[in-house]
Amino acid sequence: MGLSFTLLLVTSGAMAAQGVHHFRLGAMDLTRRWFMAAGALGGVFMVLKLSDFAHHASHGGVLGASDFWDAYLLSTGFHLLHVMVGVFLLLFVSWRLGRGGFQDTETAVAGAALFWHLCDAVWFFLFPLFFVAG
């Protein structure tokens, strides 16, 4: 499951990077499509992560059960909240792109992708800590 999470985030990050690349080429339609695809994979990540939480909770993996579950649920839960924000940013920017409203469109596009890459970077610490080491 951890590898699935990682592949979803890495692929989604590559899609966001493609969106920035196409934005800089002036291809707004492709930018929107790449950002929406990245956001969609982020949505799949969220659904799977919530399913993961439910599965662990049904087997006793809840806050207060042990130090491991406290660390796992708090760190991956906090990451999930950031993924939710990142998906919102990707989809919001893709929706607003070309409609005006951004004072600096480059910053909006690159900033949304940068935030999304931050979610990737944090996951690269969580994945080995909870899915490889165990």
How do the strands and helices of this protein lay out in sequence?
Blueprint: H1 2-24, H2 28-58, H3 67-96, H4 105-132
Describe this protein's structure:
By secondary structure, the chain is mostly helical. It has one domain (2-132): Cytochrome c oxidase, subunit III, four-helix bundle (Four Helix Bundle (Hemerythrin (Met), subunit A)). Helices cover 84% and strands 0% of the residues. The chain has helices spanning 2-24, 28-58, 67-96, 105-132. Helix 1 (2-24) runs antiparallel to helix 4 (105-132), helix 2 (28-58) runs antiparallel to helix 3 (67-96) and helix 3 (67-96) packs antiparallel against helix 4. The radius of gyration is 16 Å and the shape is elongated. The two termini are 13 Å apart. The model has no long low-confidence stretch (mean pLDDT 95).
Given helix and strand content, the structural type is mainly alpha
What is the name of the CATH superfamily? Cytochrome c oxidase, subunit III, four-helix bundle
User: pLDDT below 50 for ≥5 consecutive residues: which ranges?
Assistant: none
Bin the strand percentage: under 5%
DSSP helical segment count: 4
Q: Which of globular, elongated, flat, extended, rod-shaped describes the shape?
A: elongated
Listing every helix as H and every strand as E from the N terminus to the C terminus, the arrangement reads HHHH
CATH architecture: Up-down Bundle
What's the CATH topology name? Answer: Four Helix Bundle (Hemerythrin (Met), subunit A)
CATH class: Mainly Alpha
Task: Say how many strands there are.
Answer: 0
Largest sheet: none
Average pLDDT metric: 95
Q: What is the number of independent domains?
A: 1
Distance between the termini: 13 Å
Instruction: Give the % helix.
Output: over 70%
What's the Cα radius of gyration? 16 Å
> Oligomeric form of this entry?
single chain
